[in-house]
Amino acid sequence: MGYGFSRAFQGQNRGSRELISQRLEAYLPFLAPLKELYPDYPILDLRCGRGEWLELLGREGFAPSGVDLDDGMLEACRMLELPVRKDDALSAMQKLPDNSLVAVTGFQIAEQVSFPVLQKLIAEALRVLRPAGVLILESPNVEGVVVGDERFYMDPAHQRPLPSLLLSFLTEHSGFAKSRIVLLQEAPALRDESSRDGMWQVLSTTRPDCAVVAQKQAAPELLCVFNPVFDAAQGAPLDQLAVRDDCVLESQLSKIEDEMSTGRADYLKALDSIQRLQVEQLMHMQERYKNSLDAALAKTDALQAELNKALGNANSWELRATTYEQQLETVRNSTSWRITAPFRLMVRAIRWPFRSSRSPLSQVLLRGVPHARLYLARRPVIQRRLMAILNRSPWLVAKLRSLHQRTLNAAAAATAHSLQDGEIDHAPLTQRGRTIESALREAMIKDQK
Fold first, then answer.
1. At what angle do helices 71-79 and 5-13 cross, to 10 degrees?
2. In percent, how much of the chain has pLDDT > 90?
3. pLDDT tens digits, 322-376
4. Which of 232, 347, 413, 417 has a 20 to 30 Å separation from 100 between CA atoms?
5. How far is CA 395 from CA 363, 399, 402, 420, in A?
C-alpha cells in the first residue's frame, strides 16, 4: 500500500486518537500487577500504528517501544516523540533475548498474518516474556454478523477472520499458563440483564473487537496476584447473550400475556357494566313510554266520550227536527190551514209595500222612467197620444218631470262617482247598446227643448 494509506484509513474508519486511547484503557488492569513483580517494565507493541497505546503506556509509567513497517504510521509516532523503529514484528522479537519483556502487545495484527507466522509470533512472545508476563492480541470480533461479513474486509490488510476461541486455544497450546477472552466495547444496554434490544442488535453492533490475554507460566505466588483481573467478568459471549435475550423476551411475553389477561378481565367487567346500564336505560324508556301510552289512551277515551256525547246531542236535535217537520206537515195538511189560505194571502199583499226589503214606489218609478221614455221614443204615435192625455193633467206632468229630473241627477251622480273612483267601463257597446244610447240622447235633447 502507498505511503500514508494505512494512517489515513485508520483515521477515518478506526476512530480518533482519543477514542482509541479510551478503548485501550481496558487492558491496563492486566498490566498493573507487573509493577509489583519487576522494577522495570519493558513492553513491545507489534505494529504500533499511530502510537495511541505507546502514549498511554508512557503515561502509566511503563517503558514501551513499538515497531511497524508503515512509514506514515512511524512518522505520526515520531511527531509525538514516541520510541518506535521500522521493523517486522516477528523479526523484532527474534532479535530480543529470553525473558526480556514484561508484556508483548499486538492490536489488529493477528488477522493480518498467515497462521504459521501467527504461531511463530506467539512462540517468540512466550520466549521473550518474563515469568508471569502477559501477551495481548486484539482482533475484530467475528461473532458479530456485520463485523464478520462486512467491516472485517474493509481493511485491505486483513487476510481472514480469526475466532477468539481459536486464538485462545493457540496461546495455551503454545505453552502459556492461562488465557482469557476479553470482549470489548460492549454496548451499555447489554450490561443490563433485564433489558432487551433485539437479536439483530446483539448480532450486528455489540463488541466489535475482542482480545486474548495470555500469561506465561510462573510460581503460584506470582500468578495469584493476577487472579482478580483474570477472574473478573469481561463480557458475555454471543451464545449467552442470545439465551439471555430469549429469557428476557419470554419474560416480556409472559408479562404481556398477564396484562392482556388483566385487560380482558377489565374489558369483560366494563362490558358487563355497560350491558347492565343499557338494560336499565331500556327499562326506564319502556316505563316512560308506557306512561305516555296510558296518558294518550286516557285522552283518547275522554275524546271518545265527548264525541259520543256530541253524537247523542246531534241525534237528539235530529229527532227534534224530525218531530217539528212532522208537526208542521200535519198543520199544513189540516183543514183550518187550507181555509185560512186566502186571508194569509190578503195580509201578505197588504204588508208587501211596507216591508223594508222591498223598494219604495218612488224608487220603482225612478228605475222605470228611463225605460218608459225609451219605449215611447221608439213609438212616436203612442208618445203623441200619451202626451195629449198628460197635457190635460198639469199635476201629473209636473210629477213626471220631477221624476225625470231626479233620474238625471242620479245618473250624473253615478257617473261622477265612477269618474272619481276610476271605475269607467271602457268595454265596447254592442249594436243594440249603441241604438239604446242614441235613443236616450235624442229623448234628453227633446226634454231640454
1. 70
2. 30
3. 887 888 888 878 888 778 777 777 767 666 655 554 455 556 555 666 667 777 7
4. 232
5. 19, 6, 11, 37
Strand, coil or helix: 299: helix
What nine digits make up the cell of 222?
506470582
Element (H, E) at 399: helix 394-421
Query: Rounded CA gap, 423 and 428, in Å?
Result: 15
CA 362 to chain centre: 97
C-alpha cell at 366: 225612478
The pLDDT of residue 410 is above 70: no
pLDDT band at 44 (very low <50, low <70, confident <90, very high): very high
DSSP assignment of 219-276: -HHHHGGGHHHHHS-----HHHHHHHHHHHHHHHHHHHHHHHHHHHHHHHHHHHHHHH
Report the side by side order of strands in the sheet with 101-107.
Answer: 84-86, 63-68, 42-46, 101-107, 129-140, 209-215, 178-184
Closest CA to 88 of 64, 61, 106, 111: 106
Residue at grid coordinates 347492565: 276
Q: What angle do CA 189, 190, 194 make, to 5 degrees?
A: 85
Q: How far is CA 406 from CA 359, 370, 402, in A?
A: 16, 11, 6
Torsion sign across C-alpha atoms 75, 76, 80, 85: negative
Which backbone phi and psi does 66 adopt, to 5 degrees? -135, 155
Please report the DSSP string for 196-229 in residue order.
---HHHHHHHS--EEEEEEE----HHHHGGGHHH
Residue 17 CA, chain-centre distance (Å), reads 50
Global pTM value: 0.52
The rounded distance, in Å, linking the Cα atoms of 274 and 268 is 10
CA 135-139-142 angle, to 5 degrees, is 140
Q: Report the sign of the C-alpha dihedral through residues 7, 10, 16, 22, in that order.
A: negative
Q: Mind listing the pLDDT tens digit for each residue in 149-193?
A: 455 555 556 567 788 889 999 999 999 999 999 887 765 555 555
- 97's CB contacts (< 8 A; 6+ apart) are 128
Q: What is the mean pLDDT of the chain?
A: 78
Cα separation, 108 vs 158, whole angstroms: 9
